[in-house]
Structures are given as structure tokens and as C-alpha cells.
Amino acid sequence: MTTIVLSSTVTVRAQMRVQSENVDLEHWHRLGCLAWVHADQHGHARMATGQAGRELCLSVNQVTDAIAVARRRGWLDPASTARCLVLPGCANNPCEEQHR
Questions:
Q1: Is the dihedral angle over the CA atoms 14, 19, 37, 94 positive or is it negative?
Q2: pLDDT tens digits for 36-70?
């Protein structure tokens, strides 16, 4: 099991929050930052239905596309879904969400 340890967690999360709200960034980049904002100690960012879209002001299709691009670019683990954004290398960690 991989455990995510962030030094100055509050600072890192605050910076990632700022970047997730930066509309000058591409959707996939903002989504990756949002995953870091909400990631638990196991590297999983559980999302309520539609939460990522609401927080980023994106449509369902835009969130789906952003997840696909973030996976390809290595910002999210391939197991990521709209309900659980998984940080790279953390897919085998405990999670209540059903991952592929």
C-alpha cells in the first residue's frame, strides 16, 4: 500500500486549490490539481456525483475528457473515475469505490 505524505500539507493543498480554480489552465490540469486537494491518506479523492464538474464549472463530458487526458499525461492513475480520482501509483490502496 502506498501512503501519500505531503510536507506542509495545508500549503500544498492550498496551492493546488488555487491552481484548480485557475481557468487559464487546461481542464485536465485543473482536475489533477483538484485530485490533490481532495486526496485522502491513500491517494484517493472520493467525489460525490457531479462534484468535480461543479467545483471546476465543467460539464459531464468535459470532466470525462479531462480524466482521460490526465490519465494519459500521468497526473491521475488509470483507475480514476469521476467518482474517485486516484493519484498516480495509488490504485491498489483501500477505497470504497469500485475501480477497474
A1: negative
A2: 999 998 899 999 999 999 999 999 999 999 999 99
| Total structural domains within the chain | 1
Domain hosting 60: range is 28-86
Q: Which residues of 4-16 are buried (b: 16+ CB within 10 A; e: fewer)?
A: beeeeeeeebeeb
pLDDT digits (tens, 9 = 90+) for 61-94: 999 999 999 999 999 999 999 999 999 988 887 7
pTM of the model: 0.84
Does the residue 39 lie in any domain? Answer: yes
Dihedral of CA 85/50/59/25: which sign?
A: negative
**52 domain residue, yes or no:** yes
CA distance to 6, 9, 64, 68, 96, per residue, from 92 (Å): 19, 22, 22, 19, 12
Per-residue pLDDT, 9: 60
